[in-house]
Amino acid sequence: MASYLQREKRRFAMAWVAVISTAVVAFGLCLLFIGSPPPKRIRLATGETPGAYAAFGREYAEILGNNGLKVEIHGTSGSVENYRLLREGKVDAAFMQGGTYDPCLDDESEVCGIASLYREPLWVIYRNDHEITDVAEFRGKTISLGPVGSGTDAVGRLVLEANEIGDDDAKLLNLTMSDSAARLEKGQIDVAFIVSSFENRVVQRLLDNKQLRLMSFRRHGAYARILPFLTAIELPEGVLDLSDNIPARHTTVLAPAAILACRRDLHPRVVEQLLTAARKIHCRGNLVDEPGRFPSQESLDLPVHETADAYAKSGESFVSRFVPYWALPWLVRAQLFIIPALALWIPFFRVLPLLYRLRIGGLLKAHYAALRDVETGIEKADSRETLEEAVRTLETLRKDMERISRKIPAYYQRDVYNWRLHVAMVLEQATKRLSKSGGVKQPEKDKKTASPHFSR
C-alpha cells in the first residue's frame, strides 16, 4: 500500500516536470520564431555638420523619436566612412552615396540597402572667365574633392580618373565643404567638387556667387555609361532660382543617388519605421526630383533588405500599421506567453480533470485492494493476535482515507464515502470476531466507523 502511494507521488511529480519542461520548450520555440522585441535606440551615421545628411538625420531623429524610437546621430566625414562603420557594426543605419562602395566587395556583406532617397547632384563649381564643359579642362588646376572618406572624394576621383587626371596631373585637396567654399570664393583654389542636395546652404551660396560658374557636363551620356551609378539631370534655366536666374543657362549635371542603408540584422520593425520616416521627408520631392519619385529602389545597388522589399511591394506590415512602435516590445512579450498558453496550457487544463479522476481512481483501487487483503486475513485468522493486527490495519486505512478525502473536491467524494462504508463493514466484522473470541472491548472509534454517516 505504502509503496503504491509512493509510486503515485513519483508519477504525479514526473507529470508536472513533463508539463513544465514542455512549457519551457514551447516558450523557447516562440522566442526563436517570434524573435526579439525591437530596440528602443538605434545609431544613425550621417555626414558633415553643414551637409544634407546631417540635416536629414535630425529630421529622421525627430520623427522616429516621436514614435518611440530614439536615434543616436553619429557625425562622420561622409559616405565611405559610413559604409565602413556599417560593416564593422558600429552603427545600425547610415546615409550613403551611390558609387562610393563596392557592392561585390564581400558576398556575405552585412550591409543592405533600404531605399534610394533622392538624387545628389555633383556640383562642379569653378572660377574662370570662360565656360568649361568638360572635366578634362581642369588638368593642372587646384581641385577640392571633399574630406577623405566622403562620398564627394570617392565620386570626384572616379570622374577625374575617367579623364586620366590623377595626383600628378592636378593639385587635389581634401577639404571640408565649408573650407572648400571659402577658398573657392577667395580664389585660393580653382575648382570645387561637391556632392550634396540643392537645399545645402553652402551650395546655394556658391551658386549665387556671380564670380563662380556651375559646369554643365557636355558628355553626360558617356559618363553615365562609364560610371553607371551616375544619372544625368537636366536643369532648365532659372529652375533653382527664378529671380536670380540660377542656373543662367540650360545645365546638365550628373548625380548619384543618396541611399539609406542598414545592417542586415537590423530589426524589421525598425526598417519599417525608417521607411515610413523616409516617405514623410522625401516624397515631397525638390527642384531636382519630382514629387512621389522617392523613396524607391531606383539606383539602389546594394542588396535590398528583405523587409524593405516587402514594404515596397505591399506597404507596412499589419503589426506596424495598427500597433504603435512603443507598444511593440510589450506585444512581443505578450506573444511569448499567450501562444504557449494557447498551444499547451489550454489543452492541458482540459485533460487535467481526466488525469485527476484517474489518480483518485488509482488511490481507491489501491485501498480496495488493501481492504480485500485485510478481509481475507480476517476470514482466515486463527488467533486473537491476527485479528487485533487486522483491526489496527483497518484503522490505519480508515485514517489514511479520511486524510485523503479532505484534499479532494466534493464531486469526487462519492467513491470515497463508498469505500469508508465498506471499511466500516469489514471493521465491524473483525470486532465481532474479536468479541466472540474473548469478549474484547470494541475500539473507541468502532461506533463512529460503524455508521455510514460519521463526521469528517
Q: What does it look like?
A:
- The chain is α/β, with parallel strands linked by helices.
- It folds into three domains: 2-20 and 354-450, no CATH class; 35-117 and 259-322, Periplasmic binding protein-like II (D-Maltodextrin-Binding Protein, domain 2); 121-255, 3-Layer(aba) Sandwich (D-Maltodextrin-Binding Protein, domain 2).
- The protein has 14 helices and twelve strands.
- The strands form three sheets. The protein has a five-stranded mixed beta sheet with strand order 2-1-3-12-4, with helices on both faces.
- The protein is rod-shaped, with a radius of gyration of 43 Å.
- Residues 439-456 have low confidence and may be disordered.
What's the topology here?
Layout: H1 2-34, E1 41-45, H2 52-66, E2 70-74, H3 79-87, E3 93-97, E4 111-119, E5 122-126, E6 142-144, H4 151-162, E7 171-173, H5 177-186, E8 191-195, H6 201-208, E9 213-214, H7 220-226, E10 231-235, E11 251-255, E12 257-263, H8 268-282, H9 306-314, H10 318-322, H11 328-380, H12 384-405, H13 413-438, H14 446-450
Parallel strand pairs: 1-2, 1-3, 6-7, 6-8
Antiparallel strand pairs: 3-12, 4-12, 5-8, 5-9, 10-11
